[in-house]
Amino acid sequence: MAAIATTATSTAGRTSRSFSFPCSPPPPPTPLTFPRRGCAVSIRSKNIRIRNPRSKGLRRVECLAREPLKVMISGAPASGKGTQCEMIVEKYGLVHISTGDLLRAEVSSGSEVGMKAKEYMESGRLVPDEVVTEMVIARLSQPDAKEKGWLLDGYPRSPAQAQSLEKLKIRPDVFIILDVPDEILIDRCVGRRLDPLTGKIYHLKNFPPETEDISARLITRSDDTEEKVKTRLETYKKNAEVIFSTYMDLLTKVDGNRPKEAIFEEIDSLLQRICEGKLAPVKSIDLKLGSSSQDNWRGIPTRLNNIPHSREIREYFYEDVLQATQRAVQDKRFRLKVEINIPELNPEMDVYRIGTLMELVRTLALSFADDGKHVKVCVQGSMGEGALAGMPLQLAGTRRILDYMDWGDYGAKGTFINIGSIGAKEVDEHDDIFILMAPQNAVGNCIIDDMKAMTDAAGDRPVILINPRLKDLPGSSGIMQTMGRDKRLEYTASFESCYSFRLLYYAGTQYPIMGALRMSYPYRYELYKRVDEPSGKEKYVIVATFPKQPTIDEVNDAFQGKPRNKEKTASGGIWGFLSGIF
User: Which domain of life is it from (predicted)?
Assistant: First the structure.
């Protein structure tokens, strides 16, 4: 069975959270005083301190948790790892440990381990793992690393090195992977040029030399040819995926194909959350490196047709949705939608559970509240007139259940989190984020007018739709709609997907599962095929990626191994998406 990774959280406001729905309302919490928008919650503020900036406008952060921050970072050649290490060290003051620097320093100092390394280096042999590990352990044992924390740059590089650290119980707080598509890495390497006079690195397209004199003396490094770069990439991937399995519960994959400032903003946010003690490290269990890799992704839980879903499966999806949504909000995306169609969240199936949807909404709301944001959770109220008055059956009673749910031990509900309905009148000045739970149209009742009024009132504050069902349906006789059909469809399309997960079946069936389609912002859509193994277990194998949501024809072609962009004479095929998503 594929590995299922979940993030254990222990946060102020989320420390003790049951998934039960009490039959009577809980006693009112003790009143607390909370900061206004944009401020950190006071009960966490003791864990982090910001010093004056040193340079480049970065503020030095000192982690005041019980132990200093410990970070491992990995990336293929030309992934930008060195730049990110510089920025991390500058802001957090960690001791930067690179095996290359260690080797040179130990050899220069004439230490015992340095002399061992020198013998191998002078004979042209690779320095053995045990020698490198001995140097790393010695450096980690020095007082500055113990006091300030450390950043291990590109280490461990082999399974043996990783296991050596594990035996000594040396583990990081987070393992960061800089993920860049192969074609981008190759271009970065092949286009690099070295100035032999200054040692400065240039790139013919991305960072050209300042003058013609410099350009004339630039040279290409011997290992920056396309053939050698591809070999280095394959070596890196082969070792990396074995190493990553050791740190499965600590991995965070960061999109490295962005400006360095955007990359560091995501890393910085992650490290600050760890320092604050707000979250366990963000987990990313997608071990596929580079968009051209078609290796198995070991993160999709298996046996998803087993109902009810286990707690581990539900929490896996809650966390998967949370991380994608957080990234989108951090990137200032204001109109977002989450579409997740596992059986318990698919209203077209008789195993649909509204409680699972409410748990997902609660996870999102509590996480944003932990960041000091005021969250409005919205459930549409009664719509229509006369015989058509009412609300969608699947949402009946949810407002009352949300009021009675366990929202943590620190009085988040009523302070940082409030429950409301959908409409402009629900938008208060102090609200930061709006989460709309399964907004949907019904025959004769269109929710889009109320949604449009609400998003207009919200302005540039994020509005997140969770499993919307906004298919355009006929209006009821005598009830005027303020928006034409084209405008309603245009408005619906204005929400950007930040997370999408759906299971694939044979058309017209709901068993067996044939595969899955997943997208987690800001990454591509990934298509997986479910494969039965002789042992009776199953796994998901990636077969294609897409820059946008694929059509059914594109899914059919990918499953059948047909080339892309082939002319179609008819639509449809044997593979079908689940209904009831949009």
Answer: Eukaryota
